[in-house]
Specification:
- The structure holds 2 protein chains of 2 kinds.
- Chain A is of the alpha+beta class.
- Chain A has 3 helices and 6 strands, in the order αββαβββαβ.
- In chain A, a hairpin with a 4-residue loop joins strand 4 and strand 5.
- Chain A is globular and about 30 Å long.
- The relative contact order of chain A is 0.31.
- Helices cover 62% and strands 8% of the residues of chain B.
- Chain B is α/β, with parallel strands linked by helices.
- In chain B, helix 11 runs antiparallel to helix 19.
- The chains are: A alpha+beta, B alpha/beta.
Chain lengths: 83, 610
Amino acid sequence: MERQQENRMALTRLKSGQTGTVVDILGGRSIHDRLYALGIHRGKKVTKVSSMYLHGPVVVDLQHSKIALGFNLADKVVVEVEH
Amino acid sequence: MRVFLVGNPNVGKSVLFSCLTGTRVVSANYPGSSVEFTRGFMQHNGQRVEVISVPGIYTLEPLGETEKVAAEMLSHGDLVINVVDATNLERNLYLTLQLLERGIPVIVALNLWDEAQHKGIVIKHEELERLLGVPVVPTAAVLSRGIKHLLGRLPDAKPGDLPPAGEDERWALVGRITARVQTVTHKHHTWLEMLEDASIRPFTGLLMAAAVIFITFKVLRFIGEGLIIYVLDPLFNNYYAPLILKLHPVLEPSPFWHNLLIGHIEGQKVDFITSMGVLTTGLYVPIGMVLPYILAFYLVLGFLEDLGFLPRLAVLLDSVMHSVGMHGYAIIPMILGLGCNVPAALGIRTLESKRQKFIAMTLMVVAIPCFSQTAVVIALVGKHGGIYLAYVFATLLVIWISLGLILNRYLHGSTPSLLIEIPHYRIPNWRQLGKKLSMRLKGYTLEAVPSVIAGIILINFLFTYGIVDLLASVFEPLIEGCFGLPKESLAALIIGFLRKDVALSLLQPLGLDILQLVVASVLLTVYFPCIATFSILLRELGGRDMLKATMIMFATAFVSGTAINYAIHNSPNTIWLVLGLMLGVAFLISRGQNRAAPEHEAKTFSDFRA
């Protein structure tokens, strides 16, 4: 349990090039739905491509598409990294 | 019969629509390039079929206005052509499954088939057809491939037989289907893909954006200036002017017609800018001065649009845009606005939240000059030296930023986060580019020539009946006192409501010096939009917000016009000091408590851990 917690982080904390599995999306129904429609949902593997300066958007790779999430949105997507 | 084209954003619905109906619509490589429902007709088996292209949606769940309207409309159709991006099957199938739950006949167009093959994605489309239970046809709309086959199979379309499912079940099913029908052979990164990644990494991205903007300026100048110097000016001066000179003695006996058609000419020389006749200035301004730059602008814009560069700019500038109350995507309508504010205003409509829309609309009409006006500014101001052009555009940029900072500080409401799919770069198809360019040029010419002519008729009327003189003496203290312009410049402000390009050329006969021209160029951009933009603004914002925006325009015009006038006449370079001061003040104001509501009620993960 303890170790699992350490592996969990928001997308914003993930390093570029790292891959993680989405385990939780914090926030209300509308955020959940918007992300869901773009294919970001629990159990989905995402690879972080980059993040911009000054709390800019995070870009993630979902195998066939790239999605940019504004910083506040990316901060609500919790991923788990395998070691 | 009524057919709907439904699909995710940026999968080629507009291109397919053009293929089917022969009606041209503007398309581009970024999500949300079509914001309106487009309707057309095609002949199919001797039957007239209505085709409606629905703006791109990811889901039928009512996330926003677009999805709500789309879902609602589906019940009024006989058939859905579900356009699916073959390079991104998994994400697209989610919507397909939702459509199959609806009980409306569906046929799937597996579009961008050529691109999928390029990327090493193989889809067994017969297998997909079997699993979905509806026809699946590979297409490449840009190359007009597969269209006949698609039409041939329209009668096979049938309603899906999927029971309504929950989101998780749906995604699970999508996963299973994709695993069955798709194999991806990994290919080496192409240079285009390497560019793709580089252009969203912070350092290389900004570097590339700077390079693109620099090259854009160079190309604009090269094409625009080249066309004017080597094609249009010789055409007008060597072939058209002698015609006018022949007409001149013929019309001399009837001063009314002479004045209206030819205007003032002195001796044996036609001055196309100052003569103010319908056949002289009325044709020269829209065709000889503005059209070359419009052509250059839309050529470059079309290329960048189809390449897929614009959404990357949205990512790069997102944090900067947030400080002026918008998210990064808003940069796209701003760039479109540099061409013409009207389509840009339609693009702003799709931005989420009322607050963001208001800020974007206001900033655009206040500080984004359309290219018709820019072309005339380049012609009249630019000939005195590039530094004067720099004064004009730097002032507008500073106004845009300062006003954004202030509005962001004081407006209630919220600005949501950016969420956008970044398309792959695509090498633009030259035929598509050509079609798009000719459509935009046609649109410009049909709009500009009549309204420039109307403007010229109106100005002749206003001068003849002394209306300009009357109004000018009323506003003299403002125009001469604050802005340092001759009071007759008021005529330009009146005509500017109709058309900004011809308004600027109205100033030419008044003999303004270059410093006054700089002030006038800024004023004409800021004080009020042209009537075409105004009517869309009124529709989109409503009367109350429009009134607010108008107040902001007048106040900004007054403050910036006066400040620039005093600065520039003190010594031209004082303008930099004043602009710096404006930015500084706006920045200080913006540091106060922001009135925008926190974006979402929920805490972020960082708060959560702390």
